[in-house]
Amino acid sequence: xxxxxxxxxxxxxxxxxxxxxxxxxxxxxxxxxxxxxxxxxxxxxxxxxxxxxxxxxxxxxxxxxxxxxxxxxxxxxxxxxxxxxxxxxxxxxxxxxxxxxxxxxxxxxxxxxxxxxxxxxxxxxxxxxxxxxxxxxxxxxxxxxxxxxxxxxxxxxxxxxxxxxxxxxxxxxxxxxxxxxxxxxxxxxxxxxxxxxxxxxxxxxxxxxxxxxxxxxxxxxxxxxxxxxxxxxxxxxxxxxxxxxxxxxxxxxxxxxxxxxxxxxxxxxxxxxxxxxxxxxxxxxxxxxxxxxxxxxxxxxxxxxxxxxxxxxxxxxxxxxxxxxxxxxxxxxxxxxxxxxxxxxxxxxxxxxxxxxxxxxxxxxxxxxxxxxxxxxxxxxxxxxxxxxxxxxxxxxxxxxxxxxxxxxxxxxxxxxxxxxxxxxxxxxxxxxxxxxxxxxxxxxxxxxxxxxxxxxxxxxxxxxxxxxxxxxxxxxxxxxxxxxxxxxxxxxxxxxxxxxxxxxxxxxxxxxxxxxxxxxxxxxxxxxxxxxxxxxxxxxxxxxxxxxxxxxxxxxxxxxxxxxxxxxxxxxxxxxxxxxxxxxxxxxxxxxxxxxxxxxxxxxxxxxxxxxxxxxxxxxxxxxxxxxxxxxxxxxxxxxxxxxxxxxxxxxxxxxxxxxxxxxxxxxxxxxxxxxxxxxxxxxxxxxxxxxxxxxxxxxxxxxxxxxx
Length: 710
Ligand SMILES: Nc1ncnc2c1ncn2[C@@H]1O[C@H](COP(=O)(O)OP(=O)(O)OP(=O)(O)O)[C@@H](O)[C@H]1O
Hints:
The chain has 710 residues and is of the alpha+beta class. It is 27% helix and 16% strand. The strands form 6 sheets. The protein has a 6-stranded antiparallel sheet, covered by helices on one side. Strands 12, 13, 14, 15, 19 and 23 form a 6-stranded mixed sheet that branches.
């Protein structure tokens, strides 16, 4: 036999040994080989042409490693998706469930200690209990021949590092939406007591064809901890740090084991910066240099690298990247809410970020379904240096002893809003104090609260001082919903001051801002009336807020770090009640049309004697014509119902300060009832939920202007 024939025969034997093909396929192939007498490459091509094996499998079989492609007698490895510091990720087929999955094999050296193995099993168990659209689903974990692996949902997408490498920095709205979704996934983890510890662009996968952004590798960074735990890892003692030096929070650099969710928020801020600029927050020749900069240098400038980014976005990045955890958003949900005004897409999905297969650049336009959502045309974002792709992967770094006390390069004065960067190292890594000082300075030099004002949309903004109030309705309240959605009554604090528009946004105001309006009352409004805008989706209401913020820029009342947005449900009820505990801000009953516009029938016990219109109203009526409540707010009861920022869930009331509702859901809250509701439906505690994409001719909105860090 020729050597070519030997190689082909060997390949065939390897195929048999691999047990990847059925007996019938093997017989068929042998018949073809006997007839065609191919050399090895031709035989391999034939197997590929028949679609029986992937190129990766054929290569492995040719090397005699085909048997290893079957794992735990259930999974068949199809191809390698990628490899990082922790292990290798394969696309695999789960023969038992009949689906493709992703399978991550952990490097042996990561699990040499029994403690690490237990930790791995604990983390995977915790992960398998997670159920959120923005967190990858974990199905299974096993050990085979000393290799530990876990099996997860296969995402048809690309991680953020690769996306930025391929298409460059993302448009503002896409970058914000990806990070917002990642924050929602993180919130889910946070609510279950998990910390990611290794947030970075490569652990955020964006779908190729739309769908939800997914967080991967949650909690696995713990595998890098040596069994000794915290004490074995303090860089101040031993010189180690876990994580990715490009995104690690200062406190994580100091003590990797004692971090909380705010370290993830820091890393998410850095990742947002990366998505917007293609740059890691701090350049450095070595991991050590980068770590030191995280601990001492001010957060990076965004606006000088992304001229088209709203200034507020830079503040959000800086807020997340505050040196002191107390000065960051305290929950991922807070960050998600802050990014919401910059995200025009329909929550919770996102657009495809990459062209299929070809990897060609695709136009980044917002979905057409959202009029007014398009960002201004993007000047090609011009990073000042070559995009530096986030890397290397997560590692354990060792700082050489002599580096412990090095002084750190500082920015020139004026490069940061505070104008000053304090960076004095006294002894070993006195980083936190510096970070606190820098960020406190940044916050405290912020301007004072503006006086009540009328904004560029013509909305009169009423100053609300905030306070503690009883949210919800007592069981004995007449007209109370009987499904539990209004209670129990809880003590809630709304922090102030902040501003709320005295009226609902009118059709005319909406048209001037957005260039058109979907209101059913458009014909009437065109005749010059001030009907409330209606039929506006929740996304469009947010887009209005975003545009208003832009338009207000430079006005005397505009403040850095403040933004327009929809009210939270708690803010809305606080504002509506105006220090009352009765069903309405005007007492136990309400009169049509002097106190509110609602469906007056003369039959509802909550109706105060008044005019009963001959037939039900078809639209809201001019805003600001009813009697205002004690805070000076009009139409909180009735007229049109108003979108709030929170997701709706029947049992979603939370107590405490500034609650923001559940982390996700299908519906957003509407409040206040409308011209279609009877008196009981326009009470202060009445609440409902609608899909954010719904256009309802009885739903509009009003806006608040509040500090981002309220
Ligand atoms: N569930 C999944 N579905 C599809 N692709 C995935 C999945 N999980 C990871 N990947 C992809 O596999 C590749 C390798 O992932 P991995 O997590 O090993 O990389 P990394 O984050 O750079 O490294 P590490 O976190 O280990 O340092 C990445 O490109 C990632 O996008």
